[in-house]
Design brief:
alpha/beta, single chain
């Protein structure tokens, strides 16, 4: 169940826990770029990072799921309540990314966690992450629109 966000001119503070499962840190930089940019000020969202997954309203997961971290991700799953919103950010979190055919990669984070929203990209832009958060919060009823690059 997604947390309710009131957009009637007031901000609601949303506590977010960012879990880096094992990745090249490209997605992590874009997540931090979103938190430190002006995009959240334009929207009526106030998202802050918290230290514990127990205190979070939403879990942002980046990285591919390797065999060595499956146990830790299961422990993370047990520490969060069942109704928390989980957003998988980046190609690695969705299906394993460029390492998906490696012997050590199990796949995307959805193999262990029940993901509510997938944000594609390698790495996704802060706008795409914000769009994914809006979809997760049900404040925007749109699907992702793919933009194809056309050479002029």
């Amino acid at each position: 169940m997604a947390p309710s966000v009131s957009l009637a001119g007031q901000k609601k503070v949303i506590n977010c826990f960012h879990a880096n499962i094992g990745v090249c840190n490209g997605c992590d930089l874009e997540v931090l770029n979103l938190f430190t940019s002006f995009l959240l000020n334009k929207q009526h969202l106030d998202i802050q990072l918290v230290r514990s997954a127990k205190n979070a309203d939403i879990l942002l997961a980046t990285g591919s799921l390797s065999r060595t971290v499956v146990k830790k991700v299961r422990e993370l799953k047990e520490s969060i309540p069942a109704n928390k919103t989980i957003v998988a950010i980046g190609t690695c979190a969705i299906d394993g990314g460029p390492w998906r055919k490696s012997f050590n990669i199990v796949g995307g984070i959805d193999k262990v966690l029940n993901v509510n929203c997938f944000v594609p990209g390698c790495p996704p832009t802060p706008n795409a992450i914000l769009q994914g958060l809006e979809l997760a919060f049900d404040t925007k009823k749109k699907q992702f629109v793919s933009h194809l690059y056309k050479e002029k």
